[in-house]
Design brief:
By secondary structure, this protein is α/β, with parallel strands linked by helices. It folds into two domains: 1-21 and 69-110 and 157-243, TPP-binding domain (Rossmann fold); 23-66 and 114-150, 2-Layer Sandwich (SIR2/SIRT2 'Small Domain'), CATH 3.30.1600. It is built from nine helices and nine strands. The chain has helices at 14-17, 37-40, 43-48, 50-66, 71-82, 97-100, 160-169, 188-194, 221-241, and strands at residues 7-12, 86-91, 106-108, 111-118, 124-126, 146-150, 172-176, 198-203, 215-218. α5 (71-82) packs parallel to α9 (221-241) and α7 packs across α8 (188-194).
């Protein structure tokens, strides 16, 4: 690895928050287990199965609100504060644990579980409690048009242009706690690699897109991310002292 990187971009997935008690979407114990994807995470569900969908996301929002950042979140926030280069975060996670850990400028490409949006006026609001299919929009007052402000299957990512600019400027790209099987985010590693970045995966299992990475380190995010952050800071410190 280089002594100092100009711009490090982290892509974080569900495995990043698993040690905070939030279930992952893939594998045993995942959120989809016992709940069909089409029942809660598609445009068809939004149109035809709103009660079940809203119940699912209200439960998820309450769980996320009660969760606390783990060692991986805290290490990444600390790296942002201390690293001499830029450190950016793109997250697939709906929770706000990066923000709770005091990370800055987190790009939520799949949306945020603590927000809802009105399809009539397109206004985005913070959910202070449960939301319901027939509740009026606080902005325009129209009933029956609100939805969780998240990306459903088949919908485009949020902040695509911003994410593309980050991937273009990165000289180190790190995917942590993500399976590498949900596109288009799974394609970020390949895009960063094509742009000249060193690519590293920190994941519990070998990611599906492992060929896009120069290095794959297996293990829990709570173990590997702090170690990786410490190594980056140590290399940067050596470079500074040699100047």
């Amino acid at each position: 690895m280089k002594k100092i990187y100009h711009h490090i971009v982290f892509l974080t997935g569900a495995g990043f928050s698993a040690e905070s008690g939030l279930a992952t979407f893939r594998g045993n114990g995942g959120l989809w287990n016992g709940c069909k994807v089409e029942d809660v995470a598609t445009k068809e569900a939004l149109a035809n199965n709103r009660n079940k969908m809203f119940d699912f996301y209200n439960h998820l929002r309450r769980e996320a609100a009660a969760a606390e950042p783990n060692a991986a979140h805290l290490a990444l926030a600390e790296l942002q504060k201390k690293y001499p280069g830029e450190v950016s975060i793109i997250t697939q996670n709906l929770d706000m644990l990066h923000e709770k850990a005091k990370s800055q400028n987190v790009v939520h490409i799949h949306g945020q579980i603590n927000q809802f949006r009105c399809l009539n006026c397109n206004n985005v609001q913070t959910a202070r409690g449960d939301i319901f299919p027939d509740m009026p929009c606080p902005c325009c007052g129209v009933r029956g048009y609100i939805r969780p402000n998240i990306v459903l299957f088949g919908e485009p990512l949020f902040f695509q242009q911003q994410a593309a600019l980050l991937l273009k400027s990165a000289d180190l790209f790190v995917a942590a706690g993500t399976s590498g099987e949900i596109y288009p985010a799974a394609g970020f590693a390949g895009e960063a690699k094509e742009n000249g970045a060193l690519t590293v995966a920190l994941n519990l299992t070998i990611p599906k897109n492992h060929l896009c990475f120069r290095t794959v380190v297996l293990g829990k995010a709570g173990d590997n991310v702090p170690k990786f952050a410490e190594k980056l800071l140590a290399l940067a410190d050596i470079a500074r002292r040699r100047r």
